[in-house]
Design a protein that fits this description.
Elements lengths: L8 E7 L5 E2 L5 E10 L5 E7 L10 H4 L8 E8 L2 E16 L5 E7 L16 E4 L1 H10 L6 E3 L12 E4 L7 H7 L5 E4 L4 E4 L13 E2 L4 E8 L6 E5 L11 E4 L1 H5 L8 H6 L6 E5 L6 H19 E8 L9 E5 L8 E11 L3 E7 L7 H5 L29 E8 L10 E5 L5 E7 L4 E4 L4 E4 L9 E6 L7 E7 L25 E5 L3 E6 L6 E6 L13 E6 L5 E6 L2 E6 L2 E5 L78
Parallel strand pairs: 9-12, 13-19, 15-17, 24-28
Antiparallel strand pairs: 1-2, 1-5, 3-4, 3-20, 4-7, 5-6, 6-7, 8-10, 11-12, 14-18, 15-16, 18-21, 19-20, 20-21, 22-23, 22-27, 23-24, 25-26, 27-28, 29-30, 30-31, 31-32, 32-33, 33-34, 34-35
Length: about 650
């Protein structure tokens, strides 16, 4: 390798199954490129001259087997035979190019690379966890990838726990982690994947010295003051729907602790920034949610506030997620820079490029839309839909099968459990859309409709505001196995709806509420379902029917008892008894003619009985007896006559 203005470059590469076999010295290494970034899988590319066009030129590098797929590779670099590791990983692919200058190119990735190809699967259940805990659980399942998740103490992790975190089984572990980082970052070290909150207050790394006029080659960093804004957050507390859940923090309050990273003019200017970023949504339920989103905002802003590159002489000591200082910049400039990425280019020269900040940690837009993650672009895997996996769930509808119905005692949301075939039969809890629901008032709490699907019903769900941990059932579907009732067929015609869409019904297990708006005979019926194949009210054991056009009438049927109200009057036809009773009131009967006819006895009892006729009063019977226990008075203002065809006795 070549010299630098500093001294002679030394490179050591070992490879093989265990990564311990030295690369023979006569292998002609052309260049090395190592890339390490926050929230991305580190990669290294080795380019060797190998073989040629002549038959005698052997492909020693390719045939050595040292760089076979799956082998371990360790790259060390330094000066004057003193080297330190700048990359450690696994061979993923190699490419041989035979031309005037034949090349063998080896592509290697960090030990965390398998996360980009391992899908979440259907057997992982994440319940009663916050997002960092969920990430920790997912990573711990991958025994071949060493990882460590450090959960921040503020806001209180227990206050951010979710009843269930739904996992898309087709999504890779890497995508799940990245999309849910929020205010955390993934730091892929050579032998350990760390997930933690970035520390912008840490002291500068003393092992990395960068000085203008010495090892500083190129400096191109800018401040993006547009990343600094005030923050307004508005949520919705389901437990206290009438109370406001909102906050607003001014820009100077948010970033006061980060002024060491600002140039002098920015320190003066940023406090006058008027722009406000607004985050709102029904996924924000508590003060802890607001605090968490605030931390996300600060992380995203600081990662994007100062961005660019710093190029220096090759240095193996630069580490991700540390602070480096640059000596010799203008006095008004902040010397502190957060390392979001490191790139080593080794060929004739060794250049180390420090990437300041990172655009890969964005997460606020994900939170604002109702999810809980960190956003950012995918790395070496595609979380989007494909011809194999179908559309992504967010923003789409999906089908589910109801597993059970239960009252959610903790949240009081009356959730049901639904199995999602899209998620390889994952069971989620979901709220059910009702046509009408309300709180009522203090004297009469609770109001609205109460319709829930039965177990086994096919329903349509959607993630509310794109949050795949907050599902909403928006309706049910008929299917070949869940067919409409036979009662919904009109007089043997085809299954409804009919051509005019005149038929509407609500059918439960034991009852049917039926509306028919036909032109000739519009009618309404509520009935029992004692015979699920007969439609007419007259065929039901219990029913109330109303016809309003063709022979208008209202009919109430109780088994063999019937009440009919029509233009002829009211018919009460009872199979047994009819009882009229008014304990503390009166019963009055008024008609042109009243006829009481009993096939056996007719009995009238009362404290006093008074019968009067305006003209004639006739009492007739085979035998008529008038008897008073003490006295009988018969009185006439004119003549009183008593007559018997045989004999009349008085006295």
């Amino acid at each position: 390798m070549a010299d630098t203005p500093r001294t002679r470059i030394s490179v050591e590469i070992t490879a093989g199954k265990s990564g311990s076999s030295p690369i023979p010295g006569h292998f002609r290494l052309m260049d090395i490129n190592v890339k390490k970034d926050i929230n991305k899988i580190p990669e290294a590319t080795l380019t060797y001259a190998d073989g040629g066009v002549a038959e005698r030129e052997k492909f020693e590098v390719a045939d050595s087997g040292l760089f076979d797929k799956g082998n371990k590779v360790i790259i060390k670099a330094g000066y004057n035979s003193t080297t330190e590791t700048i990359f450690e990983g696994i061979v993923d692919a190699s490419e041989l190019t035979v031309d005037k200058l034949s090349k063998f190119v080896v592509k290697c990735y960090n030990q965390a690379h398998p996360l980009t190809s391992i899908s979440m699967g259907k057997d992982l259940t994440l319940k009663d966890k916050n997002m960092p805990e969920a990430i920790k659980t997912v990573l711990s399942e991958q025994k071949d990838v060493k990882s460590k998740v450090t959960i921040a103490s503020k806001p209180d992790p227990s206050s951010l726990k979710k009843p269930q975190i739904v996992v898309d089984p087709f999504k890779t572990c890497w995508d799940f982690m990245k999309e849910n980082l929020a205010c955390y970052i993934a730091i892929p070290e050579d032998d350990l994947l760390k997930v933690e909150v970035p520390d912008f207050k840490q002291a500068a790394d003393k092992e990395v010295e960068i000085t203008y006029g010495k090892n500083l080659r190129n400096f191109k960093v800018k401040e993006n003051t547009g990343a600094l804004q005030s923050l307004a957050i508005k949520g919705f507390d389901q437990q206290k729907a009438g109370e406001k859940l909102e906050t607003e923090q001014k820009v100077d309050a948010l970033y006061k602790d980060f002024e060491d990273h600002m140039n002098d003019d920015t320190k003066k200017y940023y406090k006058s920034i008027k722009e406000i970023e607004v985050v709102s949504g029904s996924h924000i339920h508590t003060k802890a949610d607001i605090d968490f989103i605030t931390e996300v905002k600060k992380t995203v802003s600081m990662m994007n506030f100062k961005t660019g590159t710093i190029s220096i002489h090759g240095d193996s000591k630069v580490k991700l997620a540390t602070i480096v200082e640059v000596v010799g910049l203008p006095e008004s400039y902040s010397p502190k820079f957060f390392v979001g990425g490191v790139e080593h280019k080794i060929g004739r020269d060794w250049e180390t490029i420090i990437k300041v900040g990172s655009g890969a940690s964005g997460g606020l837009s994900k939170l604002a839309s109702g999810s809980s993650g960190g956003g950012g672009s995918s790395n070496q895997s595609d979380p989007a839909g494909s011809s194999t996996t179908g559309a992504k769930l967010s923003g789409n509808l999906t089908i589910g099968i109801v597993q059970s119905i239960h009252k959610d005692e903790e949240e009081g949301l009356y959730k049901i459990e639904v199995m999602l075939p899209k998620l390889m039969d994952t069971i989620v809890t979901a709220r059910v859309l009702q046509p009408y629901a309300g709180a009522g008032d203090e004297s009469k709490p609770g109001e609205g409709t109460f319709f829930f699907p039965n177990k086994g019903a096919e329903v349509v769900l959607t993630p509310l505001e794109g949050d795949e941990n907050n599902w909403l059932v928006i309706g049910s579907l008929y299917s070949p196995t869940n067919k409409p009732s036979e009662e919904l067929k009109l007089h043997g015609a085809k299954t409804q709806p009919d051509e005019d869409n005149a038929h509407k019904s609500i059918v439960t297990k034991d009852f049917i509420l039926d509306f028919f708006d036909g032109k000739d005979d519009p009618r309404f019926m509520i009935a029992s379902r004692d015979d699920g194949k007969k439609m007419n009210a007259s065929d039901k054991k219990y029913s109330i029917a109303m016809h309003i056009k063709k022979e208008p009438h209202i009919t109430v049927i109780y088994d063999k008892t019937k009440i009919v109200m029509d233009k002829e009057g009211v018919l009460v036809d009872s199979a047994k008894n009819i009882v009229l009773k008014a304990d503390s009131g009166d019963i009055e009967m008024s008609a042109k003619n009243i006829k009481i006819d009993g096939t056996a006895d007719v009995t009238i009892n009362g404290q006093n009985i008074k019968a009067a006729a305006k003209t004639n009063f006739n009492v007739e019977g085979m035998q008529v007896a008038v008897k008073g226990k003490t006295q009988v008075n018969v009185e006439s203002s004119a003549t009183a006559a008593f007559k018997g065809s045989a004999m009349t006795n008085i006295g």
